[in-house]
Amino acid sequence: MNDGDKGAGPSARSKRADARRNQKTLLDAAASVFVTSGVEAPVRDIAAEAGVGVGTIYRHFPTRADLIIAVYRHQVEACAEAGPALLASSETPHAALGQWINLFVDFLVTKHGLAAVLRSDNTGFDTLHSYFIDRLLPVCTQLLDAAAEAGEIRSDLKALELMRGVGNLCIGAEHDPGYDARRLVALLIAGLRQPH
């Protein structure tokens, strides 16, 4: 390493950390706007929510498709990372499962808002469903296994069955204010309990 590199290390790491934080802020803002206004919401609304200029959005995400894909992946990652954290911090594995399923419901309601776009011809969207399954299925499996091993829930339910069931309960929730998908999902999770 030469003398010029000595000072660049921490500064470069700090800039990368700042860039990651800024991108997370943009993605959180876009997700929030997508939920309330749909994926066709004006970029200026996302920029205002994030507290940045419109040019900043386009610099990070040159097209709307780039932004939508990034939001989707960001939300999948947040949901995936939450599982182990909830398992470590919750009173019981069943409590962790319930909290994670609530996050999953939040994600699904947003995802349903993206559904029409995700079914479009854009090749960038093709791999998103596989990515979703690859990242979230192991997390759901870990939570179910932990709750079953603790004797809290029945052990014959597969993660994909639970995720599909929750997904089906969420269909249409964003269009019907009288329909409370979260309440029905809570009943489903409560129904997994082992009788004592």
Q: Classify the secondary structure makeup into a structural class.
A: mainly alpha
Listing every helix as H and every strand as E from the N terminus to the C terminus, the arrangement reads HHHHHHHHH
Helix content: over 70%
Q: Using the CA coordinates, give the radius of gyration.
A: 20 Å
The helix count comes to: 9
The biggest beta sheet, please?
none
Count of beta strands = 0
Q: Low-confidence runs (pLDDT<50, min 5 residues)?
A: none
- Determine the strand fraction and express it as a percent band: under 5%
Overview of the structural elements:
With 196 residues, the chain is an all-alpha fold. The protein has 9 helices and no strands. It has helices at residues 3-6, 8-37, 43-50, 54-60, 64-89, 93-118, 128-149, 159-170, 181-191. The mean pLDDT is 85.
How would you concisely characterize the structure shown here?
It is built from nine helices and no strands. It has 196 residues and is an all-alpha fold.
